[in-house]
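Progress narrative, work stream C.
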Amino acid sequence: MKKYLFLIVLGLGLVACRKDEVNQFDGPSLQDLNGAFVIINSLQASQDSVDFAAGESVYFTADLSKTSAWKITITGQTSGAVKEITGLSSSIDVSQSLWTGTTTNLPIFKAEMCKVDLTFTNEPDTLTVFVKVLAPKTNAGFLISDFESGFNGGWTSFVQAGANMDFQIKSDGSAPEGNSYYNMAGIVDWDWLIGLVNFNASAYGASTFPLSSNPNNVYFNVMMYGEPGLNNTLVLFQFEEDENGDGAFTAASEDMYSLQVTVDWVGWKMVSIKYSDIPCLVNGSPAAPNGEGTHQSNKIKTINMLHLANPVSGYAKAKLDYMIFTENAPLNP
């Protein structure tokens, strides 16, 4: 009798387990594996125009017959800026596709018409809509320069008497932000220095740059262009601190931190660094600072930008645009 009772209880337990596991599967469904790929609802934009400067955003929707790897590519028809959004799902909605005006690949978007393509990794289909950007997004932070207003009278500069020297603000449509950038080019065969610009806080009506006193919260950002076929340019940014508040930088007794960038890439690239991570350099090598030895971002008086190249390396060229301090995070253009 006990044997029969044990078999009955065991059978009931197995039935209960099967009931709990109904409609539960491990891995992809048969529809995702073998089902036909069908566009159920085509690509749509939540609005056909967007003013990012006013804080607006836009998102995209579509419905598919099965889970698929997809990519939304937004391309500015004037700027050439590109924003990419990827996902893996059978439905695309605001939680996956919200666009706030940021870019994946420089340049930054302008006020322009944008083409929005939805493509799929394993399918030939391409779905397209258009969205008009009424105004690009604005970036919070202290803008040192985007060179749109020309050369600030409060800056100072120096250019060597070399050959093929070309240090000037240019507007030719290739800027990563706006329409203008600072061009730097030339040959100097007796010195590393080709040219420089001093961005003085006094040019903005203050004795020091208006930044947070916490160097861990301050980020320096700049967009730089590497010329095809040339990789000999060094750009050195020097941050001079007026530690004693006397209105001057004293090299022998106050801190200067230096960011040296080897421009060994092609095209526009954004360089971002936390101020507390910028070292003190002497002739390109780490050294102890001469002052208090503590990064004090709120005491930066001058930013020197030096275009350098080994004098035996020949012609050097690079471009500079959109220098900006941001707080709490690097610039998200």
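Work stream C, second folded protein:
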Amino acid sequence: MAFLLLIFAAAFWGGNYIVGHIMVGELSPIILSELRWLLTAMLLVALYYKSLRNDFNKIKASFWIIFFLALCGQVLFPLNLYISLQYTTPLNAAIYLSTTPILVLGISKLFFNDYISRANIMGVILSLIGVVYLILQGNIHDINNLAHLNQGDLWAMGSAASWGLYCAFLRKKDKNISGTVFVTVSSIIGAIVLIPFTLYLLLTEKHSFDAIAVNTSLLLGLLYLVICPSWLAYLFWSKGIAKVGAMKGEIYTHLVPFFGGLFSVLFLDDKLHAYHLVSLVFIVAGIYLCSKHEKVGITSPIAKGI
């Protein structure tokens, strides 16, 4: 049962790519992010208000690190992702996200001087080769393409970088603050930070209230984003990790970009090309090498149950 919970959680997070791709055709990425976290914050506060009250002093003492993590995880990560999905496919965005373990390794070395082995360095090189191969779409003879990146690729890289920062700095979170409280506070911060940007867009002629067509697909999309990737996925993951442990659960983090790419092919008819597979081979090999002799502290936050 624990493994099923972990798989469902990864699938829900993977589905965020598909729903996000569809919804950015109707809403600005900023407005979409604001609605997602505002509604999620309201739901989680209603569910966990007693825990919030009990942990208030801990939250106050750790406010700035929680704020930084929320900025990376609740604001920059999904916002960059939703912007990227306006210009690139969910399949491409999912592959870029799969480089997160390598980014975490580099960030952890830079800021915390974590140990990096020769295998880790080789893993970073292999993963970079995979990313460059994806950017070039397998056409290695046309290096000039690197100077004319699809802006969706750049935003997707920004999304992966934001998540990498979130993963690396999660070690600074007070471990005495419960996971549910941490996610609830992060959702509140994310919603508040996005308010001025959302208001600016809504007050412009292009993004006026009248321009937002409230329809069934929009409501169902928001319902999915709030219920599945923002709440149930976290709940399922926490319960699964509690049963199997963080080390065994770590492997399931790689199912998130897998499901994102799979759903993209199945539901959006994205074409799976040979260069996607070649890129994945290099990136997966890089992840394997980067995970060897891994030091405590750079394990994925999802595997820790956030």
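Residues 2-290 form one domain. No further action is required on this item.
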